[in-house]
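Weekly sync, protein design subgroup
Attendees: M.S., D.O., the rotation student, P.L. (late)

Item 1: inverse folding check
M.S. brought a backbone from last month's batch and wanted to see whether the design step gives back something sensible before we order anything. D.O. pointed out we never logged the input encoding, so this time it goes straight into the notes. Structure tokens as presented (406 positions):
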């Protein structure tokens, strides 16, 4: 395959991630489902939680499976699970358990299987731009809701909420299947012509490709898992309560708060590319240290902000940091453990996302119930981010640790 054709694979990977990222548009369905079937917001939101929880574990399975059958088979399977899962949700009338099974469980499996494919594939094709290319790919996931939300909202108005699941499921299946056909690994022994890693890149990369078991024996893998968990917990704690936080701290109406949420959510996608680019210019360690430092300042200032424009701007940057973790960590993992087995190694690391998606929102909601405001929870998040700065500072490539002890 010609070097230029790797960009075709990258574009297909972005489209696959856009389809999967449509899951972030779940809030569009909450009110229609509540109005039609009387389910509570918490019951409906649990569907989204199940999807994201399944994503982390399915990504691990998908990463292992990729090493045996290649990315195309895994991506095609993901397209079937995700498309069919969403389609089957159209039969959820008065059956909440079916919504959990179809959209949550089956669709969540498709999410995880599909999410890991472009990430693990593109780091192999782009050794020269590992951070940027994975940032671009997962930015598609962050941008999925921007495309799907208005389409889904319009479909709900025209055909109803359950038929909308059917239409979207079919569309997801078709688009994801087409994108999956382009997924392939580089040929054995392939190297990018005319490129070699710089001295700085070499110093931050593993000397050989680690297997999953070998990676899990290193303390570095667990530190990277914790970095991802802490960053996602902070960001998703805000995402889960954005509207209420805006209304409480700035006094705006629910409609205005909704508009603020829409603008701030753009930061999720922008941050995935921006921080990945920063990590290529500096190092992954420096990028994550900066991500945590920025959040310390912003979370501490949050409760004092009362101007809507300032609140929207601050939240935009917080979500840039949230998305930046997803844009940077795949390259971080490939640097430390090699690109060959990044599928299962990073796939298992995504369980941090699963646990954070439960912990972050539950913590924020509980803190609000106990204290009567969000100030305490936001200040605690600032402290957590301050402590987290230590992690990217102390972590080093596994081979560096081996040398230090020899």
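Designed sequence read out in the meeting:
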């Amino acid at each position: 395959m010609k070097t230029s054709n790797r960009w075709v694979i990258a574009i297909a990977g972005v489209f696959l991630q856009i389809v999967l990222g449509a899951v972030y548009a779940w809030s569009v369905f909450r009110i229609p489902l509540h109005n039609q079937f009387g389910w509570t917001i918490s019951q409906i939101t649990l569907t989204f939680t199940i999807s994201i929880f399944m994503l982390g574990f399915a990504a691990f399975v998908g990463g292992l499976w990729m090493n045996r059958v290649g990315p195309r088979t895994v991506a095609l399977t993901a397209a079937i699970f995700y498309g069919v899962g969403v389609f089957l949700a159209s039969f959820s009338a008065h059956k909440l358990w079916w919504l959990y099974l179809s959209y949550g469980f089956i669709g969540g499996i498709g999410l995880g299987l599909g999410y890991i494919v472009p990430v693990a594939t593109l780091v192999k094709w782009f050794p020269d731009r590992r951070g940027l290319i994975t940032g671009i790919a997962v930015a598609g996931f962050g941008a999925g809701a921007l495309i799907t939300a208005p389409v889904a909202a319009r479909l709900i108005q025209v055909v109803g909420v359950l038929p909308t699941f059917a239409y979207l499921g079919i569309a997801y299946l078709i688009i994801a299947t087409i994108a999956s056909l382009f997924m392939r690994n580089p040929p054995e022994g392939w190297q990018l012509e005319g490129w070699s890693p710089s001295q700085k890149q070499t110093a931050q990369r593993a000397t050989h490709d680690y297997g999953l078991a070998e990676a899990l024996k290193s303390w570095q893998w667990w530190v990277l898992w914790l970095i991802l968990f802490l960053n996602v917990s902070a960001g998703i704690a805000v995402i889960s309560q954005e509207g209420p936080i805006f209304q409480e701290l700035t006094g705006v109406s629910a409609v205005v708060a909704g508009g603020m949420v829409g603008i701030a959510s753009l930061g999720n996608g922008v941050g995935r590319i921006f921080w990945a680019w920063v990590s290529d210019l500096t190092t992954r360690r420096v990028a994550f240290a900066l991500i945590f430092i920025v959040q310390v300042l912003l979370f501490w200032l949050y409760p004092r902000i009362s101007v809507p424009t300032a609140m929207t701007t601050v939240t935009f940057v917080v979500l840039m940091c949230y998305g930046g973790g997803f844009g940077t960590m795949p390259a971080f993992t490939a640097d430390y453990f090699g690109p060959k087995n990044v599928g299962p190694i990073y796939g298992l690391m995504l369980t941090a996302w699963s646990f954070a998606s439960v912990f972050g929102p539950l913590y924020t909601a509980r803190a609000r119930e106990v204290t009567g405001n969000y100030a305490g929870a936001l200040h605690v998040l600032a402290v957590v981010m301050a402590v987290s700065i230590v992690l990217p500072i102390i972590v080093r490539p596994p081979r560096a640790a081996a040398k230090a002890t020899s």
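Discussion: The radius of gyration is 21 Å. Residues 3-180 form a domain with the Growth Hormone; Chain: A; fold (CATH 1.20.1250.20).
Action: P.L. to compare against the previous round before Friday.
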